[in-house]
Recover the amino acids of this structure.
């Protein structure tokens, strides 16, 4: 079985780290990795390949820093050439980035089977770039791996239960596998101006909707600044956000550090008092580490955590951000429901792909 995996952005490296290391153990599976180059700084890309031992991509496309159309179009052109040459049995895609979209489009046009991990998530808002990417990737996938009840509900509302050519599989969330598998490697970041035993809040911020809109960015920063005046905020900064803060001359009071590796991130998640984020991955990881997250959004596709009170939607309201911090700082989350499969998603994903391909070749 030949599988081509398309990755390009930070969260996809972490997801692929889990699955690709399993593929390496299976004799009759050959995995070819395409890295689109969407994320390219060493601290946004290389570090993950090195620390998690992700197999080296056979193809590195260096396509980044462009408008959505240009980026996706250039990826499509290059991925198509590779797929024609490699002739895989299946293309494996993760999440909802432009790299996911390009991989899906290239594969479906060549009539190559597609498996999509993290299907069914919806914001019900087409102005969010990831929403467009995930709806398209889901719609052309043959194996639709959905993580949650809500994701299944979304897929049913869109008629997926009646689609004969789509196999719907509840996989749980591959990020939970990653968190538990790599937890033993966690390491405290070097050069942090606080100690491991100090109280601190962990923050990340990068969504286009928050960074591109100057008013939203200013409001969120105001909320973070108020918190930092009371409890230190540690913020590994996404390059997109760093650029916007400079462009708009916005003063962010926090311990701002460069993007960090996953093992360092796990350590901060483990030791922090609270998480502030707009990241899809980090809002679940806070829950895996029994912490509350305040989310800079008015809706989350991981709604089960909001309904259970583990995540709080604070949007860009600085007053709400500060008050939710006061109410939730240090609050330990007790996991009652098994929302995400308990860290076993990789077995479901790999087993289903093997069975599917075996069935198709018989
Ligand atoms: C992308 C994904 C988003 C995901 C995020 C993970 C899309 C539409 N968005 O958003 O879903 O949550 O990755 O982090 O695919 N940059 C650098 N160095 C890098 C990477 C990015 O400087 O290594 C800067 C560049 O100026 C670039 C900007 O960040 O133009 C945005 O990068 P891009 O990959 O387009 O989008 P993200 O915001 O990272
Ligand atoms: N992450 C990391 N280093 C950082 C920031 C995030 O390793 O400096 C990890 C984080 O723990 C999570 C993943 O990157 O596993 C999430 O990526 P991101 O927030 O960029 O994307 P999203 O999940 O929102 O698509």
């Amino acid at each position: 079985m030949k599988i081509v995996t398309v990755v390009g952005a930070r969260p996809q490296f972490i997801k692929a780290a889990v699955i690709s290391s399993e593929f390496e153990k299976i004799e009759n599976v050959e995995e070819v990795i395409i890295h689109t180059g969407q994320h390219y700084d060493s601290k946004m890309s290389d570090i993950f390949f090195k620390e998690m031992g992700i197999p080296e991509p056979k193809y590195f496309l260096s396509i980044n820093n462009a408008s959505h159309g240009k980026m996706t179009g250039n990826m499509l052109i290059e991925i198509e050439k590779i797929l024609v040459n490699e002739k895989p049995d299946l293309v494996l895609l993760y999440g909802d980035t432009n790299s996911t979209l390009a991989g899906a489009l290239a594969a479906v046009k060549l009539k190559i089977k597609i498996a999509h991990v993290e299907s069914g998530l919806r914001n019900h808002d087409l102005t969010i770039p990831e929403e467009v990417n995930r709806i398209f990737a889901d719609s052309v996938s043959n194996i639709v791996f959905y993580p949650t009840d809500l994701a299944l509900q979304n897929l049913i509302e869109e008629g997926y239960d009646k689609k004969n050519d789509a196999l719907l599989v509840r996989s749980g969330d591959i990020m939970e596998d990653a968190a538990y598998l790599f937890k033993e490697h966690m390491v405290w970041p070097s050069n942090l101006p606080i100690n491991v035993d100090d109280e601190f809040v962990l923050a990340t911020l990068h969504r286009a909707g928050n960074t591109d809109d100057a008013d939203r960015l200013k409001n969120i920063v105001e909320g973070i600044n108020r918190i930092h005046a009371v409890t230190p905020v540690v913020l590994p900064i996404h390059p997109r956000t760093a650029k916007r803060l400079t462009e708009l001359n916005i003063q962010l009071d926090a311990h701002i550090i460069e993007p960090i590796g996953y093992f360092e991130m796990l350590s901060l998640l483990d030791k922090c008092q609270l998480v502030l984020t707009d990241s899809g991955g980090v809002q679940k990881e806070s829950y895996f580490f029994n912490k509350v997250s305040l989310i800079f959004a008015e809706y989350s596709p991981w709604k089960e955590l909001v309904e259970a009170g583990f995540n709080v939607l604070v949007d860009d309201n600085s007053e709400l951000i500060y008050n939710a911090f006061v109410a939730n700082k240090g609050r330990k989350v007790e996991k009652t429901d098994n929302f995400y499969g308990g860290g076993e998603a990789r077995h479901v994903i790999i087993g289903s792909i093997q069975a599917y391909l075996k069935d198709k070749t018989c």
User: Anything to note?
Assistant: Residues 68-86 form the longest helix (19 residues). Residues 10-11, 14, 204, 206, 236, 259-262, 265, 279-282, 285 surround uridine-5'-diphosphate (ligand 2) (CB under 6 Å). The chain is about 45% helix and 15% strand. The two ends are 13 Å apart (CA to CA).
